[in-house]
Design brief:
It comes from Paenibacillus medicaginis. With 347 residues, the chain is of the alpha/beta class. The protein contains 11 helices and 17 strands. It folds into 2 domains: 209 residues, Medium-chain alcohol dehydrogenases, catalytic domain (Quinone Oxidoreductase, Chain A, domain 1), CATH 3.90.180.10; 132 residues, 3-Layer(aba) Sandwich (Rossmann fold). The strands form 4 sheets. Strands 3, 4, 5, 8, 9, 16 and 17 form a 7-stranded mixed beta sheet that branches. Strands 12-11-10-13-14-15 form a 6-stranded parallel beta sheet, with helices on one face. Helix 4 packs across helix 5 and helix 4 packs across helix 10.
């Protein structure tokens, strides 16, 4: 077994503490990665706080992982020692179902194996990126382009792919009007990606305090949703709306009214409580309400290459491992521009 240093949490209301965890010895197709940076995702907070169901504590969160390959299994062909690589929200899947064969491993019919809070094929609980090392089968590792620094690469492995995938799937492109609900860790990535795809981009945020940032990142328009006139002015405007909000209840019907005929609202934020809607908001204009979860490995690599080509990088604040609890509090208070990234050398 390989011993790694980590930061773990022992319960929903417990602080993070220093820990040691075991990583499995390398199988023939495994890659050992020395983690350099790990992003903090709102999913980490939901899971650490037990908001998405029972958790097998102690838990080491983290599924935005960027690092360097330090060892490979005997039959590994994709990577070699020294390669710059990343790991996102999943570390394995069945590889056999129709969705896996299509390269949509995130929708594995048998359930993909989550990077943390899951159970791997050996029957062991998975532990995530708030640690110094991780062992992952090569098929679930992606290559980080040379012009993306490892610290800014980390959030791309969740925030980047979570927004790229629906924009790609629903065809954000020239001539399309795209709205992004929320200007946070996910939202600020969606703005940049949609802009690079050629769409006309509007940010719908609770206030205008981040307007300058939104416009600088590529938004064409920026509106405050706290202003009732926003919903009157923008009624029937958008071909596609990406909802990145995961921590606040919103009036879904009000946002459906902003869609054009045949428009789609896609939820990528994952609130801890159910959303409610009036189906008449959809029926009236043949609108669609959809969901999207990360992306497959092939699409994740496509996203990284796209971001490298268009110089799309998350805005980050690098912190030490001792600041994780404070960072969680600040995320919940929307006090971050726009993603915390842990320097794992401080673990």
């Amino acid at each position: 077994m390989i011993t790694a240093k980590a930061r773990a949490v022992d319960g929903p209301d417990k602080p993070f503490r220093a820990a040691e965890i075991n990583r499995r010895d390398l199988d023939s197709h495994d890659v050992l990665i020395e983690i350099k940076y790990a992003g903090i995702c709102h999913s980490d907070i939901h899971t650490a706080h037990g908001e998405w169901g029972p958790v097998n504590y102690p838990l080491v969160p983290g599924h935005e992982i960027a690092g360097i390959v330090t060892d490979v299994g005997a039959e590994v062909t994709k990577y070699k020692v020294g390669d710059r690589v990343g790991v996102g929200c999943m570390v394995d899947s069945c590889g056999e179902c129709v969705n896996c064969r299509k390269g949509e491993e995130q929708y594995c019919l048998k359930g993909n194996i989550q990077t943390y809070a899951g159970v791997d094929k050996y029957g062991e609980p998975t532990q995530g990126g708030y640690s110094t090392h991780i062992v992952v089968t090569e098929g679930f590792v992606v290559r980080i382009p040379d012009n993306i620094e490892l610290d800014v690469a980390a959030p791309l492995l969740c925030a980047g792919i979570t927004t790229f995938s629906p924009l790609n799937h629903w065809g954000a492109s020239p001539g399309k009007k795209v709205a992004v609900i929320g200007m946070g860790g996910l939202g600020h990535m969606a703005v940049q990606i949609a802009h690079a795809m050629g769409a006309e981009v509007t940010v719908l945020s609770q206030s205008l305090k981040k307007k300058d940032d939104g416009l600088q990142l590529g938004a064409d328009h920026y509106y405050a949703t706290s202003d009732p006139e926003t919903f009157e002015k923008l009624a029937g405007s958008f071909d596609l709306i990406i909802n990145t909000v995961s921590s606040a209840k919103i009036d879904m019907d009000a946002y459906f009214a902003l869609l054009t005929l045949d428009g789609t609202l896609v939820n990528v934020g994952a609130p801890g409580e159910p959303l409610s809607l009036n189906v008449m908001s959809l029926i009236g204009h043949r609108r669609s309400f959809a969901g999207s979860m990360i992306g497959g490995i092939r699409e994740t690599q496509e996203m990284l290459d796209f971001c490298a080509k268009h110089n799309i990088f998350p805005k980050i604040e690098v912190i030490s491992a001792d600041q994780i609890d404070e960072a969680y509090e600040r995320v919940l208070a929307s006090d971050v521009k726009y993603r915390f990234v842990i320097d794992t050398s401080t673990i």
